[in-house]
Amino acid sequence: MPAKLSVNLNAIAMLRNRRDLPWPDVAHLGRIALGAGASGLTVHPRPDQRHIRFSDLPVLRALIDDEFPEAEFNIEGYPTEEFLALCEATEPEQVTLVPDDPNQATSDHGWDFARHRSFLTEVVSRLKAKGMRVSLFADGDGNAEAVQQARATGADRIELYTGPYGGCYDNPEKAAEEIDLLGRTADAALAVGLAVNAGHDLTVANLPALIKRIPKLAEVSIGHGLTADALEFGMAETVRRFRHACGQKI
Ligand SMILES: CC(=O)[C@@H](O)[C@H](O)COP(=O)(O)O
Ligand SMILES: NCC(=O)COP(=O)(O)O
């Protein structure tokens, strides 16, 4: 089965938050993404709500429930009590636990599973008891032992952190090395019964090689690169609409 695409709305929310105005409309862009065949929506609400606001969550939950009942909601974040309460109130189909510091600009590493195993086991069991699938953000470093520790927490999946691979956009040799490490991590995870997601800095250019190496990839969540493409490929039509609004003949 091909990898599912979950569209991450963080970048759109960040743009909205530049002004005290309701556009770009995060839920409506989520609707367009799901209408175009995305399998789900991802958000990563951070404690300072600099992009996704906590108040976006019930709106997106209702969008999926009312208009796209086959789609999945994926909420990512560090499992503080506040985050866990948000998940319990929103009941996403999947929660992705990420070891982010509150002040971090973006996610840049996976869990140290040996160190945080008992904490993660507790959190995973709490979320799974409420019917949520749990995925753990993991470094794609080929460490099979770490993957076994991830499995021991009771999680259903890992999400491979693909940032280092995404950063190799201008270095094909380094990209091939990263693909090898990601692939070995995925093999180890699949061997112990964990399904594998992937995300961070994925693009139309770098996805095919990743999918080729990990054909059983269950899901990719993509925000930054996808939003950049949406702007690029939507720019010409948008300028035509604004020229029309200026009274120009098109
Ligand atoms: C978990 C992860 O990989 C991140 O990509 C995240 O979901 C995006 O976070 P920001 O949009 O805050 O950079
Ligand atoms: N889990 C990764 C994600 O949701 C999106 O990351 P990015 O494409 O914004 O880097």
Automatic annotation (TrEMBL):
<comment type="similarity">
    <text>Belongs to the PNP synthase family.</text>
</comment>
<dbReference type="InterPro" id="IPR036130">
    <property type="entry name" value="Pyridoxine-5'_phos_synth"/>
</dbReference>
<feature type="binding site">
    <location>
        <position position="19"/>
    </location>
    <ligand>
        <name>3-amino-2-oxopropyl phosphate</name>
    </ligand>
</feature>
<feature type="binding site">
    <location>
        <begin position="223"/>
        <end position="224"/>
    </location>
    <ligand>
        <name>3-amino-2-oxopropyl phosphate</name>
    </ligand>
</feature>
<feature type="binding site">
    <location>
        <position position="201"/>
    </location>
    <ligand>
        <name>3-amino-2-oxopropyl phosphate</name>
    </ligand>
</feature>
<keyword id="KW-0808">Transferase</keyword>
<comment type="subunit">
    <text>Homooctamer; tetramer of dimers.</text>
</comment>
<protein>
    <recommendedName>
        <fullName>Pyridoxine 5'-phosphate synthase</fullName>
        <ecNumber>2.6.99.2</ecNumber>
    </recommendedName>
</protein>
<keyword id="KW-0963">Cytoplasm</keyword>
<comment type="function">
    <text>Catalyzes the complicated ring closure reaction between the two acyclic compounds 1-deoxy-D-xylulose-5-phosphate (DXP) and 3-amino-2-oxopropyl phosphate (1-amino-acetone-3-phosphate or AAP) to form pyridoxine 5'-phosphate (PNP) and inorganic phosphate.</text>
</comment>
<dbReference type="GO" id="GO:0005829">
    <property type="term" value="C:cytosol"/>
</dbReference>
<dbReference type="Pfam" id="PF03740">
    <property type="entry name" value="PdxJ"/>
</dbReference>
<feature type="binding site">
    <location>
        <position position="46"/>
    </location>
    <ligand>
        <name>1-deoxy-D-xylulose 5-phosphate</name>
    </ligand>
</feature>
<comment type="pathway">
    <text>Cofactor biosynthesis; pyridoxine 5'-phosphate biosynthesis; pyridoxine 5'-phosphate from D-erythrose 4-phosphate: step 5/5.</text>
</comment>
<feature type="active site" description="Proton acceptor">
    <location>
        <position position="44"/>
    </location>
</feature>
<feature type="binding site">
    <location>
        <position position="8"/>
    </location>
    <ligand>
        <name>3-amino-2-oxopropyl phosphate</name>
    </ligand>
</feature>
<feature type="site" description="Transition state stabilizer">
    <location>
        <position position="159"/>
    </location>
</feature>
<feature type="binding site">
    <location>
        <position position="106"/>
    </location>
    <ligand>
        <name>1-deoxy-D-xylulose 5-phosphate</name>
    </ligand>
</feature>
<dbReference type="GO" id="GO:0008615">
    <property type="term" value="P:pyridoxine biosynthetic process"/>
</dbReference>
<dbReference type="InterPro" id="IPR013785">
    <property type="entry name" value="Aldolase_TIM"/>
</dbReference>
<feature type="active site" description="Proton donor">
    <location>
        <position position="200"/>
    </location>
</feature>
<feature type="binding site">
    <location>
        <position position="51"/>
    </location>
    <ligand>
        <name>1-deoxy-D-xylulose 5-phosphate</name>
    </ligand>
</feature>
<dbReference type="GO" id="GO:0033856">
    <property type="term" value="F:pyridoxine 5'-phosphate synthase activity"/>
</dbReference>
<keyword id="KW-0664">Pyridoxine biosynthesis</keyword>
<feature type="active site" description="Proton acceptor">
    <location>
        <position position="76"/>
    </location>
</feature>
<dbReference type="InterPro" id="IPR004569">
    <property type="entry name" value="PyrdxlP_synth_PdxJ"/>
</dbReference>
